[in-house]
Specification:
This protein is mostly helical. Helix content is about 85%, strand content about 0%. It is built from 3 helices and no strands. Helix 2 runs antiparallel to helix 3. The mean pLDDT is about 90.
């Protein structure tokens, strides 16, 4: 919900004014807000992109990434 409200909202409301970089910044701020809000509870794996980026950074194992991706897709 937060990604849609902040990221897509920024694109729809001010897309021409802020451009692609501004829209990307909106999505980044949405993820940052969620990290601070629920990061200590769930590690902030709010969508598969977060889990895959953690795998690429070497902070998550392949097994754990697969589990996070399967269960986050299953919730939707």
């Amino acid at each position: 919900m937060v990604l849609v409200l902040i990221g897509c909202g920024g694109a729809v409301i001010a897309g021409k004014a802020i451009g692609n970089v501004g829209i990307a910044f909106c999505f980044g701020l949405a993820v940052l807000a969620m990290v601070y809000a629920i990061g200590s509870i769930s590690g902030c794996h709010i969508n598969p992109a977060i889990s895959i980026s953690m795998l690429a950074a070497g902070k998550l194992s392949v097994k754990d990434t697969a589990l996070y991706v399967v269960f986050s897709v299953q919730e939707q």
